[in-house]
């Protein structure tokens, strides 16, 4: 038989526990709403996409939620947008800061390697960046302008 003091303590403890749970819940809710950077979700869904028909590049295209490639071109309404692969090389073997976005052959079912129309190099999925020193050089050149 628990005495009166014991049950009072239990009651107090359960109130404290419930309050703590509510506080945690409030923090979780706040974190995911008010305190979250407003564009975090948006940013993660932004891609540079290329229209497979027109070749037009859309920077910062917001991928619609629960959608799959190809995405609809907002201008034509056709599902012709796919993610572009960035190529940071120039024709003369240097790096550039503004990449050329290339449609990978494998993305559109074309055989053979994808050649960048700008620099003539082979572009692959997760195309590697030029070496850091070349990128630094490109940055320096851009700043000197
Ligand atoms: Zn290139």
Question: How would you describe this structure to a colleague?
Answer:
- By secondary structure, the protein is α+β, with helices and mostly antiparallel strands.
- It has two domains: 1-36; 45-144, no CATH class.
- It contains three helices and eight strands.
- It has helices at 4-32, 40-44, 132-144; strands spanning 46-51, 57-62, 71-72, 79-83, 85-89, 95-102, 114-115, 122-123.
- A hairpin with a 5-residue loop joins β5 (85-89) and β6 (95-102).
- It is elongated.
- The mean pLDDT is 88.
- Zinc ion is lined by residues 87, 89, 100, 116, 118-119, 121.
Our Rg estimate from Cα atoms comes to: 27 Å
**Into which percent range does the helicity of residues fall?**
25-40%
Can you tell me the residue ranges where pLDDT is under 50 for at least 5 consecutive residues? Answer: none
The strands making up the biggest β-sheet line up spatially as 2-1-4-3
End-to-end C-alpha gap: 86 Å
Approximately what portion of the residues adopt beta-strand conformation? Answer: 15-25%
Q: What is the H/E string? A: HHEEEEEEEEH
What is the overall number of helices? 3
**How many distinct domains?**
2
Q: What molecules are bound to this protein?
A: zinc ion
The main sheet comes to: 4 strands, antiparallel
What form results from the Cα inertia axes?
elongated
